[in-house]
Design brief:
By secondary structure, the protein is α/β, with parallel strands linked by helices. The chain contains 14 helices and eight strands. α2 packs parallel to α4, α6 packs parallel to α7 and α7 crosses α9.
Length: 270
């Protein structure tokens, strides 16, 4: 199992100041980074390869967001959006594409369309993994999660374990019922359903990820309730050797030291 961190904390800087962001991420001690196509784009492939090599860090995965409604309304367009990202990443060493969405009115229809994208990604040698937020578990008795589980058999899961807990589900139970379909997870420190850091507010950017009256924020690793000794021990045998556990901070100060502290904390728990 490899450990990585997520560039989303630095938002558009991954595109405008790529070298410095990647160098800073490499200084944290993590082996790889995940980054989003909405910030970096899918045009500068060779530039990204050179920047990663210069920084001495791997690209663990590329993230692409596709609203669930698009899978119902225009599945061809949704598949094309995924394949654009898949073609970008298909000749990187780690061929992981994480895709997020949200709960929707016709989850089974959306999931079957997603399965088309997963199959097309496989033809490119890319693994498509669904990256959840809370709504997939909170809305309509987890209808979206269950639809992807049951109606999209070629889709892997790239579970965000913090969001699973925010959705009211046991992450160990969810992982167990999907054994063999998970090689990539996100780590957060769950601090309870009502946790909200001082100075933070519930933003519209997250409203569609929530199916109830809960906040989406998480403390930095070590500040919550998660038993990381137990979790890391479990993941070390659950994930394949080339699998990834990626720490995602997306709110708060844009400071590489936060990720350095996260890496040191995880090392102390292994």
């Amino acid at each position: 199992m490899k450990l990585g961190c997520h560039c989303v904390l630095f938002r558009e800087k991954i595109a405008s100041d790529t070298g410095n962001v990647l160098a800073g991420m490499a200084s944290t001690g993590f082996s790889g980074v995940e980054m989003g196509s909405r910030f970096f784009g899918t045009e500068r492939k060779e530039f990204l390869k050179e920047s990663l090599k210069a920084a001495g860090i791997e690209l663990a995965a590329l993230h692409v967001g596709v609203p669930a409604e698009l899978w119902m309304e225009d599945a061809d367009k949704a598949v094309a959006a995924v394949l654009e990202a898949a073609r970008f990443i298909c000749d990187f060493p780690n061929k992981n594409l994480t895709m997020s969405g949200n709960a929707c009115a016709r989850p089974a229809d959306a999931a079957r369309a997603m399965d088309r994208a997963a199959l097309a990604c496989k033809e490119l040698g890319v693994t498509l993994g669904y990256h959840n937020h809370a709504s997939e578990f909170l809305v309509d008795d987890a209808a979206m999660y269950k639809a992807i589980r049951d109606e999209a058999p070629h889709m892997n899961f790239a579970f965000d374990l913090g969001w699973v807990q925010k959705g009211g589900y046991d992450p160990y139970a969810v992982l167990e019922e999907n054994r063999g379909r998970v090689a990539y997870v996100h780590l957060r420190d769950f601090a309870g359903q009502k946790y909200l850091p001082e100075g933070e507010e519930l933003s519209d950017d997250y409203s569609r990820h929530l199916g109830g009256d809960i906040t989406p924020f998480f403390p930095d690793l070590g500040g919550g309730q998660t038993d990381f000794k137990k979790l890391l021990s479990y993941l070390s045998s659950y994930l394949p050797e080339e699998g990834w556990a990626v720490v995602e901070y997306e709110t708060g100060e844009q400071d590489f030291d936060r990720y350095k502290k996260a890496k040191a904390f995880l090392d102390s728990q292994r």
